[in-house]
Write a structure and sequence with these properties.
The structure is a single chain. The chain contains 12 helices and 10 strands. It is about 50% helix and about 15% strand. Helix 2 (about 80-90) packs across helix 3 (about 105-115), helix 5 (about 160-180) packs parallel to helix 6 and helix 9 crosses helix 10. It starts with a helix and ends in a 5-residue tail after the last helix. The radius of gyration is 19 Å and the shape is globular. With about 350 residues, the protein is an alpha/beta fold. The chain has helices spanning about 5-30, 80-90, 105-115, 135-145, 160-180, 195-205, 230-245, 265, 270-285, 300-315, 320-335, 335-340, and strands at about 45, 55, 55-60, 95-100, 120-125, 150-155, 185-190, 210-215, 245-250, 295-300. The longest helix is centred in the N-terminal third of the chain and has 30 residues, at about 5-30. An 8-stranded parallel barrel has the order 3-4-5-6-7-8-9-10, surrounded by 7 helices. Strands 1-2 form a two-stranded antiparallel ribbon. It has a single domain (about 5-340), classed as Alpha-Beta Barrel (TIM Barrel). A hairpin with a 6-residue loop joins strand 1 and strand 2 (about 55).
Length: about 350
């Protein structure tokens, strides 16, 4: 690691310490006492060092972007319908809501749907900019869109890690530490679905409170496939984050469109009834790992929300039939051109 990296690591560790010993103690207690309990239908897990007991199902908002059906397998609904869907998720007991500055209408929709209940939810957004000097503007814009003076967590978005690596990211983190200490958010998070070696260095710096990481059965990020080396480094990330008591969320639970609405189209002729069971099996596979506190799953239509709530609220034992279904479908999916054409990282 470079001397610059070590200097920034020391700075960040000192900043974390002084933040906790000074104004951070009162803020942490205030957040931990937030009334974020769900309806009681879904099981909860303690979200790492935040101390919050949150329902295991979190709301992933990337599908809230206006889109056609190519990636998600189903087109987005009207704006008002998407606002209603987010509000319905809250009313049905979801309490963790994840968004990002680059997710199109997502932050605006979250603000419209949840602006009056932010004391009862955990709200997280992300920063994706090219330079550290642009971080503040991004955060302030997010807060405006979310109709919030303060949110729970601001996360370093995965593409920043992909472009900047560990050393390049640390100046971004310094800016986030300053804004956290100003009270714009309480926790600093890290996200990503590739470059796990660099992500591990960031986790190991002990500068972050939460981790949102690709952790699905299918070995695929957003637009890449994982090599065995990547999978080994992903395991290192989760193991180290768990040691540090970070709040850990699994994303890309559906294999980044593999097990969801695109499944029947991806593997034509596969048994239709079996395809319908794929999402539940994929959810149980991730929940089987106790280190993963929450599942951050994108919601395209209200029926997805209802189905996912039913799955996490039922028997989540990972059965042999789940393993067989996932393995059987994945074996064929890995041979499809839409997957083989993806670069391996």
């Amino acid at each position: 690691m470079s001397s610059t990296g070590m200097g920034r690591r020391a700075f960040l560790q000192a900043s974390v310490a002084t933040g906790v010993l000074a104004a951070g103690v009162a803020d942490a207690k205030a957040v931990s006492s937030k009334n974020v309990s769900g309806t009681g239908v879904m099981p909860t897990r303690t979200f790492g060092k935040t101390g919050l007991e949150l329902p295991v199902l979190a709301y992933g908002s990337a599908p809230l972007m206006t889109h056609e059906d190519e990636y998600y397998g189903i087109a987005s609904g009207a704006y008002d319908d998407r606002v209603k869907m987010v509000r319905t998720a809250y009313e049905k007991g979801l309490r963790y809501f994840d968004t990002a500055r680059i997710y199109g209408d997502s932050e605006k929709i979250m603000g419209a749907a949840l602006g009056d209940v932010q004391d009862h939810i955990y709200l997280a957004s992300k920063v994706l900019v090219g330079k550290a000097s642009e971080v503040r503007k991004s955060v302030e814009t997010s807060l405006t869109m979310l109709k919030a003076d303060r949110i729970d967590c601001m996360q370093l978005h995965g593409p920043v890690i992909e472009r900047q690596g560990y050393d390049g990211c640390m100046s971004f983190v310094e800016e986030l530490v300053k804004m956290r200490d100003e009270g714009l958010f309480t926790y600093i998070g890290l996200t990503g679905h590739s470059r796990f070696e660099e992500m591990f260095k960031l986790i190991d710096s002990d500068s972050f409170d939460t981790l949102l990481i690709e952790f699905g059965y299918f070995h695929k990020g957003y637009n890449t496939r994982h090599s065995n080396r990547s999978l080994a480094n992903r395991e290192r990330c989760v193991a180290r984050a768990s040691e540090l008591n970070m709040g850990i969320l699994g994303m890309k639970v559906m294999g980044a469109s593999i097990f969801g609405h695109n499944a029947a189209k991806l593997v034509e002729g596969y048994d239709g009834q079996a395809v319908k069971k794929l999402p539940a099996s994929a959810i149980r596979w991730v929940l089987n790992d106790p280190r993963i506190h929450l599942l951050n799953i994108g919601v395209s239509i209200p029926a997805d929300l209802d189905a996912n709530i039913a799955t996490v609220s039922g028997d989540t034992t990972l059965r042999n039939e789940d393993r067989l279904l996932l393995a059987s479908f994945a074996e064929q999916a890995y041979m499809q051109e839409a997957v083989t054409a993806l670069p391996v990282v």
